[in-house]
Amino acid sequence: MTQIGMFFGTTTGKTAEAAEKIQEAFGGEDVVTLIEIPDAENDDFSSYNFLLIGCPTWDIGELQSDWDAFFPNLDSIDFSGKKVAYFGTGDQVGYADNYMDAIGMIEAKISEKGGQTVGYWSTDGYEFDGSKADRGGKFCGLALDEDNQSELSDERIEAWVAQVKTEFGI
Ligand SMILES: Cc1cc2nc3c(=O)[nH]c(=O)nc-3n(C[C@H](O)[C@H](O)[C@H](O)COP(=O)(O)O)c2cc1C
């Protein structure tokens, strides 16, 4: 059993690629277990005190389809005592009114169920008009944009993982 469980969804593979880079930055598969959301059971979440949640935004402000199907299950999961960090990929140019909405929606639900959010990330360096993940100048997680700013992703991941390690206290 690893310290950290990462639950992610992906449709075209960009968030999966980010998930693997984030796993690597945390120290690899001995530290982070990757669970793609269609394979997740409710009980899997209780196995970890530290959670990483990854979801891209699809269909103009909607959850990625596997997360969309799983979302109602979150109501049956107790996240109290857990530290949770979020990440996602999106397209801030093509979908400027809904950039990264998905992690905003999942973060709101998991917080309602007791999860403690860590890993807030400044909106500086992004250009968008609206986001459900925007919590007053900070995203409620790491925002990646493989469609327009892929050259920034590696350094963003490195900095964010260092921040989350500190906030997890590991
Ligand atoms: C039809 C369509 C709708 C999209 N809607 C949004 C959106 O509302 N907000 C956003 O930030 N990105 C949106 N995107 C961009 C995707 O989130 C982005 O390409 C993401 O990296 C895909 O992740 P995945 O490869 O892990 O599925 C959309 C892309 C497509 C093709």
From TrEMBL:
<dbReference type="InterPro" id="IPR008254">
    <property type="entry name" value="Flavodoxin/NO_synth"/>
</dbReference>
<keyword id="KW-0285">Flavoprotein</keyword>
<dbReference type="GO" id="GO:0010181">
    <property type="term" value="F:FMN binding"/>
</dbReference>
<comment type="similarity">
    <text>Belongs to the flavodoxin family.</text>
</comment>
<feature type="domain" description="Flavodoxin-like">
    <location>
        <begin position="4"/>
        <end position="165"/>
    </location>
</feature>
<dbReference type="InterPro" id="IPR010086">
    <property type="entry name" value="Flavodoxin_lc"/>
</dbReference>
<dbReference type="GO" id="GO:0009055">
    <property type="term" value="F:electron transfer activity"/>
</dbReference>
<keyword id="KW-0813">Transport</keyword>
<protein>
    <recommendedName>
        <fullName>Flavodoxin</fullName>
    </recommendedName>
</protein>
<comment type="function">
    <text>Low-potential electron donor to a number of redox enzymes.</text>
</comment>
<dbReference type="InterPro" id="IPR050619">
    <property type="entry name" value="Flavodoxin"/>
</dbReference>
<dbReference type="Pfam" id="PF00258">
    <property type="entry name" value="Flavodoxin_1"/>
</dbReference>
<keyword id="KW-0288">FMN</keyword>
<dbReference type="InterPro" id="IPR029039">
    <property type="entry name" value="Flavoprotein-like_sf"/>
</dbReference>
<keyword id="KW-0249">Electron transport</keyword>
